Amino acid sequence: MAAACEVAERETRQQVGIACFNSPQQFMLSGQNLAIIAAEQYLLDHDRQVEVVPLIGGVPYHSPLLKPCGQQLRKALDRCEWRRPCCPVISNVNAQPYPDTVTPVQWLEQQLSQPVQWQRSLTYLTGHLSPIAIEIGPQSVLKNLLLENRYPSTSLRI
């Protein structure tokens, strides 16, 4: 995957990178359109088993291209009053709970421009928290990722 991104960036002079580490079999790319297309083509050319599914969105979520947006978000978050959450909150950035001693502003800012560590988050949860997952929304995206990661849970969809 990293090789595909490097080749695509070199060929297109645009940015592309891994936006989500969803499971051992599933990654998401984010970046500029030409670079994403080039990375997809590299993957298709070099791995006959790869499946490429373009997502509609148009925003380079969880990529360095959103770093300026993260800086703007931080300015707004710095004006907020923060309290300790009543339960552990796992950061997308490092797959660890927010420390009690700091506000989550740093991690909330970084999650716009850093890859989502979903697989690592599930590994953390497996050893530390309840095996109940609640998915809110009309689809089963998270339930399917729990299955792909062999997460030992009961999943509820609301």
Topology:
Elements: H1 2-12, E1 16-23, E2 26-31, H2 33-46, H3 67-78, H4 105-110, H5 118-128, E3 132-135, H6 141-148, E4 154-157
Helix pairs in contact: 1-2
3D architecture notes:
This protein is of the alpha+beta class. The protein has a domain at 1-61: Alpha-Beta Plaits (2-Layer Sandwich), CATH 3.30.70. 39% of the residues lie in helices and 14% in strands. The model has no long low-confidence stretch (mean pLDDT 85).
How would you describe this structure in keywords?
158 residues, alpha+beta, Alpha-Beta Plaits, 6 helices, globular
Rg, nearest Å: 17 Å
The parts where pLDDT drops under 50 for at least 5 residues are none
Helix content: 25-40%
Largest sheet: 2 strands, antiparallel
Content-based structural category: alpha+beta
Which of globular, elongated, flat, extended, rod-shaped describes the shape? Answer: globular
Report the β-strand fraction as a percent range.
Answer: 5-15%
Continuous helix count = 6
Task: Describe this structure in a few short sentences.
Its EC number is 2.3.1.39. With 158 residues, the protein is of the alpha+beta class.
